[in-house]
Amino acid sequence: MRKTILSMALVTLIGAPAFAQGGTTTVPKSTPETRPIPEAPVGHRQPRRGDVPGESNINDPNNPVNKEDAALDRKIKSICRGC
C-alpha cells in the first residue's frame, strides 16, 4: 500500500511538468491585425458644463438640505476630533 502511494506521488510529480510541456506552440504573427476601432456606446459620454447643475444651490444657506448638512457636520465635528 505504501509503495503504491509513493509510486503514484512520484508519477504525478514527474508527469505533471512533462504533460504541461506537451502542448502545441503557436508562432506569433509578425504583423498585427488591423481591426477598426469600435465606436463608444451611445449614452456613455463625458458630461458637459451645461449638463451639470450649477453651484448656486450648494451655497444657499436657506436650503433645507444644506441646513441638515450643517447640523450633521456639527454633530460629526464633536465625534471626530482634529478633522
Word description of this protein:
With 83 residues, this protein is mainly α. Helices cover 43% and strands 0% of the residues. The protein has two helices and no strands. The longest helix is centred in the N-terminal third of the chain and has 20 residues. It is elongated. It starts with a helix and ends with a helix. The mean pLDDT is 76.
SSE topology:
Elements: H1 2-21, H2 64-79
Short description:
This protein has 83 residues and is an all-alpha fold.
Assign an overall shape: elongated
Provide the succession of SSEs.
Answer: HH
Low-confidence stretches: none
Span between termini: 68 Å
| Individual helix count | 2
What percentage of amino acids are in beta strands? Answer: under 5%
Biggest sheet layout: none
Question: Kindly state the mean pLDDT as a whole number?
Answer: 76
The whole-angstrom Rg is 33 Å
Helix content: 40-55%
Assign the structural class, choosing from mainly alpha, mainly beta, alpha/beta, alpha+beta, or little secondary structure. Answer: mainly alpha
Number of strands: 0
Annotation keywords:
elongated, 83 residues
